[in-house]
Design goal:
The complex is a heterodimer of chains A (501) and B (203). Chain A is of the alpha+beta class and 501 residues long. Chain A folds into 4 domains: 115 residues, PAS domain (Beta-Lactamase, 2-Layer Sandwich), CATH 3.30.450; 122 residues, Beta-Lactamase (2-Layer Sandwich); 82 residues, Helix Hairpins, CATH 1.10.287; 148 residues, Heat Shock Protein 90 (2-Layer Sandwich), CATH 3.30.565. Chain A contains 15 helices and 17 strands. In chain A, strands 2-1-5-4-3 form a 5-stranded antiparallel β-sheet. Chain A has a 5-stranded antiparallel β-sheet with strand order 7-6-10-9-8, sandwiched between helices. A 5-stranded mixed β-sheet of chain A has the order 12-14-15-17-16. By secondary structure, chain B is α/β, with parallel strands linked by helices. Chain B folds into 2 domains: 128 residues, Rossmann fold (3-Layer(aba) Sandwich); 60 residues, Orthogonal Bundle (Arc Repressor Mutant, subunit A). Chain B has a 5-stranded parallel β-sheet, sandwiched between helices. Classes of the chains: A alpha+beta (501), B alpha/beta (203). At the A-B interface, helix 10 and helix 11 of A face helix 1 and helix 4 of B.
């Protein structure tokens, strides 16, 4: 076995056609780069082996015979004349090439060189297909959405990287398994099945939208909006479905945070409005009251004088009447304002309402160097209330409690406690307790009167409004002394009997 | 000047409150003048007019607090009693810090108002009297010769004639003569009175 000269090898390397040189016994002596590419063998693997390895089974058996026949001086026509033959790739696939064979001049025993030109284009097509697959795979993996394809039975055929990341599973763990049983959150499987059946049965190519949660391998649920289409064969029979899913969990959370923030803003602004309204009302109302007091007191003085100026006193009395009417008009305006408040009563968990408002009140507590404690009973029945209004009442009561403490001595902190408990009648009592001075007897009588206040900056409306809110909930805002000391404002909300449809 | 009558100036934008206040003050024998706005009052008020001011905090245009500020800028010393329809602690604190005389929430007992008005008028009168008193002391001081002024300074520091003579390098007799002139010109009956006069003008 004589190896080709370096010149020959260089020539072979530069040839675009596949070139294979064999000896008189069919053993491969040279195998150029194009041949490597065409057949999938490395030159080092091919050299020394019989060339029949490149042939189809039918040719393989016959080839040695052809060779012997030629060497025996037989038909030399087989040489030089090119022809189409089927050959075999390393992976077993067969393809056709244009082959021409010649005897290398000056070789003895003779060596033969074969030139193979790929005519089938099959490899090219396969390469293109391979490339397309690769690109498609890239498309799938680049997609920001989850992509899942299943067959008719719901077995996963394909998932992209995004889907594997959301599900925290490897592709092979998902592919071949049942999509709904393995990846969809148990609570949403019925929804997912309905959507799946609807897709298979739909005759349209319009994507159908559905929304259900998937559960990751770590047990985390993610909200996904799905766009699905049915995959169809040539007879237009649905063979499976393709889903693209957008993970809207973060968006959902953001929305619900924004919603909560808005609710808080609302209740805060409503409270602020209540404060402003109260300030406005008390100013408005105090004007006519001041005038009435002034006129009346002036009249009393004038009447005590020896020569009372009757016309002047009469004028003042008329003014008193006018101002009293003016005050009444102001009160009517307030009442209509309060009536216009739309009450939205819903079944609520009172403890949840209290916890919600706790955050808002924490800053109030800090301002007063105090602490707001919660003492909430478990397993309370739900109550039918306007949550925002009840929170307003709580804010008002807690605010009062902190105000009631007076100045803090020797850095002691002041605690206000919101408590809930089940009453003997199985209703829900909510109380706001402080450890301040409590209420003096005479104050206790007046505490719920509108415009009554013990605070220099008080409007005297907070408790009155709170009481009317509680009254609108078929309950009563009450006061009792807190034990061992301090004040306790409480109200009892009727338990809401859930009606089963 | 001394006989100029004291006036209670009422500034409130509410007709009923304003007019009822005038009537109440009048029934108690107090002379009152009313204005419907801060601007109206400021356009006519002279700082030399004795009396006191009953001022509504919340008014459209210039508020009571803004008007108080304006009065302070003008050097007006008239005592201000604020009245408000809505007790507001921060506002009251601000008013008091800027020299408000008192603070009253509407509606009020007539006696509460009249007592405060009376105290405000007394303070205004006292202040004006003190002002007149110190003006007179300053006039008398101006009539002293430089040497008499020196003697006055040393004497009111508690120095005896002998020490003053030593300080000034003159005879004790000369000091006695100057001192007699000082007492005469200052219209002081005693050293103690002279010291009080000097304290009154020192502030």
């Amino acid at each position: 076995m004589t190896a080709p000269t370096p010149e020959v090898l260089a020539l072979l390397a530069a040839t675009l056609d596949a070139v294979v040189i064999i000896d008189d016994r069919g053993r491969i002596l040279a195998f150029n780069a194009s041949a490597e590419e065409m057949f999938g063998y490395r030159a080092s693997d091919a050299i020394g082996r019989n060339v029949s390895m490149l042939m189809t089974s039918t040719d393989r058996a016959a080839h040695d015979g052809y060779l012997k026949n030629y060497l025996a001086g037989g038909d030399a026509n087989v040489l030089r004349r090119g022809r189409d033959v089927l050959v075999r790739h390393r992976d077993g696939s067969e393809f056709s090439v244009f082959l021409s064979v010649d005897r290398l001049p000056g070789t003895s025993p003779p060596q033969f060189v074969g030139f193979l030109h790929d005519t089938s284009l099959r490899r090219k097509a396969l390469a293109t297909l391979e490339m397309e697959r690769h690109v498609n795979r890239l498309y799938l993996d680049l997609a920001q959405v989850m992509l899942v394809a299943t067959d008719r039975a719901g077995l996963v055929q394909l998932v992209n990287q995004r889907a594997t990341r959301v599900l925290r599973k490897q592709g092979p763990e998902i592919v071949g398994s049942n999509w709904i049983d393995n990846c969809v959150a148990p609570e949403d499987r019925a929804t997912a099945r309905t959507a799946f059946r609807a897709l298979l049965m739909s005759g349209s190519d319009e994507p159908q939208i559905s929304e259900y949660r998937v559960r990751s391998a770590e047990g985390e649920d993610r909200f996904i909006t799905w766009r699905g289409v049915a995959l169809r064969d040539r007879e237009n029979v649905a063979t499976g479905i393709m889903l693209s899913g957008e993970d809207i969990t973060d968006q959902r959370r953001a929305e619900s945070e924004a919603h909560k923030a808005l609710e808080r803003m609302n209740s805060v602004s409503r409270l602020a409005t209540m404060g402003e309204m109260a300030a406005g009302i008390s100013h408005e109302l105090n004007q006519p009251l001041a005038a009435i007091a002034n006129y009346a007191q002036a009249c009393a003085r004038l009447l005590r004088m020896p020569a009372a100026d009757i016309p002047e006193i009469t004028g003042a009395l008329e003014q008193i009447a006018n101002q009293a009417l003016r005050a009444g008009e102001i009160i009517r305006r307030i009442r209509s304002l309060v009536r216009n408040e739309d009450v939205r009563r819903e079944s609520q968990d009172i403890n949840e309402l209290i916890r919600d408002v706790h955050g808002l009140l924490a800053s109030d507590a800090r301002v007063h160097d105090g602490r707001l404690a919660l003492d909430l009973a478990m397993q309370l029945p739900r109550v039918m209330v306007d949550g925002v209004q009840i929170q307003q009442v709580l804010m008002n009561l807690v605010h009062n409690a902190f105000e009631a403490q007076g100045p803090v001595h020797d850095g002691a902190t002041f605690e206000v406690r919101i408590a809930t408990r089940l009453t003997d009648t199985a209703d829900v009592e909510v109380s706001v307790n402080d450890l301040g001075p409590g209420l003096a007897g005479e104050v206790e009588q007046k505490i719920f009167e509108p415009f009554f206040t013990t605070k220099a900056s008080g409007t005297g409306l907070g408790l009155a409004i709170s009481r009317s809110i509680i009254k609108a909930h078929d309950a009563r805002l009450g006061y009792r002394a807190n034990q061992p000391r301090g004040a306790c404002f409480y109200f009892v909300l009727p338990a809401h009997q859930e009606t089963t449809p | 000047m001394k006989d100029m009558p004291q006036t209670v100036f009422v500034v409130d934008d509410d007709d009923a409150v304003r007019n009822s206040l005038r009537m109440l003050l009048k029934s108690a024998g107090v002379h009152a003048e009313v204005s419907a706005s801060a601007q109206e009052f400021l356009s006519t008020y002279q700082a030399s007019q004795p009396g006191c001011l009953v001022l509504d905090v919340r008014m459209p245009g210039m508020s009571g607090l803004e008007m108080q500020h304006e009065l302070n800028l003008r050097g007006a010393t008239i005592p201000v009693i604020f009245i408000t329809g809505h007790g507001d602690i921060p506002m009251a604190v601000e008013a008091m810090q800027h020299g408000a005389f008192d603070f009253l929430q509407k509606p009020f007992r007539d006696q509460d108002l009249l007592d405060r008005v009376q105290r405000a008028l007394t303070r205004d009168a006292d202040y004006r009297a003190r002002l007149r008193h110190t003006d007179r002391i300053r006039e008398r001081l101006a009539s002293l010769s430089p040497r008499e002024r020196e003697v006055l300074e040393l004497v009111t520091q508690g120095k005896a004639n002998k020490m003053v003579a030593g300080d000034l390098g003159v005879s004790q007799r000369t000091v006695e003569i100057h001192r007699a002139h000082v007492m005469q010109k200052m219209e002081a009956g005693s050293l103690a009175e002279l010291v009080r006069m000097m304290m009154a003008v020192a502030s």
